[in-house]
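Give me structure tokens for this 120-residue protein.
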Amino acid sequence: MNTMIINGVEYAPVDELVTEKAKEFDGMEYCMVRTYSAGVFAGYIESRESKEVVLRKARRIWYWEGAASLSQLAVDGTIKPDKCKFPTEVDKVILTEVVEIIPITAKAQKSIAEVPVWEA
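Here you go.
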């Protein structure tokens, strides 16, 4: 992976980070998962049984701008990453009452990865 160090901090291009994650979760599809009451998450689907999904490396999609809908966010990503509120990624989340699953394109995955971590 190509990295650079600036003021003692190592940086890597986002597209390379996405590629590295894809290798780690080879065979798992990166998707947008909407639930009945827990909101929306983006992550790798580890398993699915009926309305329950186990999602890995998941980010909650708490608030977004720069895409008209979840469908557009999953296809194009956001054009306003600084206006989005996506908290930190969690290693694993079990989601019940899943009502929608949308595969995320590589372009949108890169865009989601570029959204700064939102913290209170």
